[in-house]
Structure formats: C-alpha cells, structure tokens
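Pasting two entries for a bug report.
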Amino acid sequence: MSVVFLFQYRYATGFDWLLAVIGTLSAGALGAALPVMFLFFGELTTQFTMYGRFLQCNLNYNDCFSMGLTNVSERLFPCAVFLV
C-alpha cells in the first residue's frame, strides 16, 4: 500500500512541523560536522604520535634527525596538505 509522504502529516500541528524542521536541520548540521571531526581527531592522533616519537630525543629536532626519527616527507607534509 503506497502512501503519499505529506499525507502522513495530515493531523500535525504547527508545533509538530516546527519540531520536524528543527530535527531535520539538526541532523544536517550533525552530518556536516562529522567529516570535520574526522579531520580534527585524525590530526590530534598524529600530534600525539609525533610527540611520542620526538620524546625519545628530548624534543630536540636536530637530535631526532640524527637518530633517523624524521624524514623528508614529514618536513614537506604541511606543504602537501596546503596544496590539497
């Protein structure tokens, strides 16, 4: 049995419509925020990892470079992200 979508709301009041619109807008905002949270927490994880790696050489970049804990791609990473 097929039912028209708006026919389901034939007894809805103005307040019901308002709640439906607020719920729809909230769901859209939450859906748009999800990729932003992925980027934020991904970067946060990267920073924790880099901190743990550089903690081995007392957070001195030259010591870390001499120990082989860095490479060229890490130095160019901000430039690559900027170009994307």
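Entry 2 (this is the one that rendered wrong in the viewer):
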Amino acid sequence: MNPLRRSLEDMLARGPAQVRFHVASPGVRLPASVFHAAAWLRLDYKSGQSMEISDEGLKVTVSFSGVPCPIVVPWAAVYFVQSLAGEYASMEWVHKFGETSVQVLR
C-alpha cells in the first residue's frame, strides 16, 4: 500500500486532514477556474463528501459556488498531508520529488 495513502487513511480515521498538491502535475484533474500553482483539500469522512482513496491517488467531489466538481489527485502531485485532529494536528507527511519522509512538529 502507498505510504501516503496509509497515512491519510489513518489520519482520517481520527478526524479531518489536509492534503496539498501541485495542480500542474500530470494526472491532476480539477476545474479550469482553479489556476493556482498549488491547491489544498480539507478532507473528513464525517463531511459526507464523495471521496475515494486508492494506491493511485484521491478522487474527491467538492463544490465551487454550489456546483459539484470531481477532483483527481495522483499521489505524485501531493507534497503535504497533515492531520487536523486534536493531539495529532502536529503530525505531517512531506512528499517531494519522489521521496517520502515523516516530520513531526511540536
């Protein structure tokens, strides 16, 4: 299993998490109106948002101005995953240039 997937699933089991990614990376699909170099998603199993996490990456449906929009993010585009749940809020995964490392900030 992809280590970022495992980490994100563990984080989401405890509460919300944030995923940051490069929008110009190969395989990223999102609305044309999103033109920033990087973007982030706040994910939470309790939110009711449509979400699929696989070894290839994320598929999430979010709303822009009330219009549902599917977003596809391969793991290669992800550079930051962070738990936003209470005591775990300081745990981070950083993914850069094909290397994955864990950082725990206090």
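Dev reply: Rendering is fixed now. As a check, the viewer should reflect this: Residues 102-106 have pLDDT under 50 and may be disordered.
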